[in-house]
Amino acid sequence: MVLTNDVVLPEESELTVEEVNLSTATLRAGSFHLGKYCEKANNEFMLCRIEEQDPRKCINEGKVVTACTLDFFRKVKKACVAEFNQYANCLDKSSGDFGLQHCRKTQGVFDKCMLENLNLERPPFGYFCEARVHDTKRPKPAVEEKAVYPDATPTLPDDAERKPARFGSRLYWMTE
Amino acid sequence: MAEACQIARKQDLPPPGGYKPIPFKRLPAKQYFSGYAMFAGYAGMTLVSIYLYNLTCKKITKNEIEMRSAKMAIYPMLLAERDREYLKQLRRNRDAEAELMRDVPGWEVGTYYGERVYKLLPPDALVEPIFHEYYAHSSPTEWFKRAYIKLQS
């Protein structure tokens, strides 16, 4: 209802790209190494998405993210396919919510393989929960300034005397 | 009359030796623990349970952080995929609306008979439609499945 013909939506051909066709267990198994490998692309996309607040403006960054993910999994398939499959299978069957604490042995085997073949170290367990700083060439979108109306009701000047509240804080009666 | 008193009849008499004394003193309830013992027991149980909780609390928190970390690592890839499909569906919705209201006189796609819905926004601003509008041109099963996705997972 609210999409007029003035709203520019991207074409279908722009949005059709090779998608990652993997299950949750597979993604979770490779999540830490994938996050480390594709860190730049992911950060760029998330920064764009949060700053612009518009999915249409971040399509190219999104394509880079998907391409990086596919590239990573192709590398894993070449190098460590058996260990990865074993780890993903363990995650899938060990618990109801893909808990990582039940599969430490297979995780150790997989990590060793990744370190040897692809030289990728597993980041510490809280790495992706921390805030990251990302430098980018894309300019920051302009912030809308507060509108100033010439005939607004005048407020108190800044140096007017402000007395303390007579009955203390009004928050005591907050819910009434 | 005097003879009647001589005949032995069965009478309701007290038992031989008399009645036992009636206990009339108060019997308070038996107290297994004194007040101090109850407070001490409460404090003791609380301390023991705090200790046992702290043994596994740190482990559980670390596991939760790890799980959140894994989810956040995958999130951008999933968001990008969802954005692409979302924009495709918006285009399909707009085309379906155009097709549906083709022969209605005065109707322009995205407006109410020519009147814009959002008047203060620029004409090419993307206002994301509400849930039911997004699923307006598909069968009710689809929005039901999305709205109650937690029941199926």
Automatic annotation (TrEMBL), chain A:
Major place of residence: mitochondrion
Species of the source: Vanessa tameamea (Kamehameha butterfly)
Main function: Accessory subunit of the mitochondrial membrane respiratory chain NADH dehydrogenase (Complex I), that is believed not to be involved in catalysis. Complex I functions in the transfer of electrons from NADH to the respiratory chain. The immediate electron acceptor for the enzyme is believed to be ubiquinone.
Alphabetical GO biological process terms: mitochondrial electron transport, NADH to ubiquinone
PROSITE patterns assigned: CHCH
InterPro entries for the chain: NDUFA8 (IPR016680)
Protein name: NADH dehydrogenase [ubiquinone] 1 alpha subcomplex subunit 8
Taxonomic superkingdom: Eukaryota
Location in the cell: Mitochondrion inner membrane
Gene name of this polypeptide: LOC113396730
A GO-annotated cellular component: mitochondrial inner membrane
Similarity annotation: Belongs to the complex I NDUFA8 subunit family.
Keyword entries, A-Z: Disulfide bond, Electron transport, Membrane, Mitochondrion, Mitochondrion inner membrane, Repeat, Respiratory chain, Transport
From TrEMBL, chain B:
InterPro entries in alphabetical order: GRIM-19
Stretches assigned to coiled coil: none
Membrane topology per record: Single-pass membrane protein
Subcellular localization, as worded in the UniProt entry: Mitochondrion inner membrane
Signal peptide: none
PANTHER family (alphabetical): NADH DEHYDROGENASE [UBIQUINONE] 1 ALPHA SUBCOMPLEX SUBUNIT 13, NADH DEHYDROGENASE UBIQUINONE 1 ALPHA SUBCOMPLEX SUBUNIT 13
Protein name: NADH dehydrogenase [ubiquinone] 1 alpha subcomplex subunit 13
Organism: Vanessa tameamea (Kamehameha butterfly)
